[in-house]
Design brief:
Elements lengths: L3 E3 L2 E3 L5 E3 L18 H6 L31 H10 L12 H8 L4
Antiparallel strand pairs: 1-2, 2-3
């Protein structure tokens, strides 16, 4: 089979053929120079380290439950004890807190 070359075309005689690309490739474009960062950095206040994140606050500690106050004794008990101690107490009405404290702190 004969090949005929004409320009950039090769014909093999069967109607099929290839085109040879003998053109020179275009040169790669010149790299674009980016603006320097220095003016932007200066406008932003300069290079600096990022601030460290604040530590998470510790969860609040549960407050201890207050100690239960001792049950207040009946007025009759306190009056009976006060009479045995020689303390003059009225027969009716509220008792002074210091008298009740004395009763609670007595030596059992």
């Amino acid at each position: 089979m004969a090949e005929y070359r004409a320009g950039g075309h090769i014909d093999r005689g069967d109607g099929e053929g290839w085109v040879l690309d003998d053109t020179q490739p275009e040169p790669a474009p010149e790299p674009v120079a980016h603006k320097p960062l220095q003016p932007t950095v200066q406008a932003a206040g300069g290079w600096r380290l990022a601030p460290e994140p604040e530590p998470e606050p510790e969860p609040p500690k549960p407050e201890p439950e207050p100690e239960p106050e001792p049950e207040r004794p009946s007025n009759a008990e306190v009056r009976a004890w006060a009479k045995t101690q020689g303390i003059d107490v009225h027969g009716r009405g509220p008792l002074p807190d210091d008298l009740v404290d004395q009763y609670l702190n007595r030596e059992a």
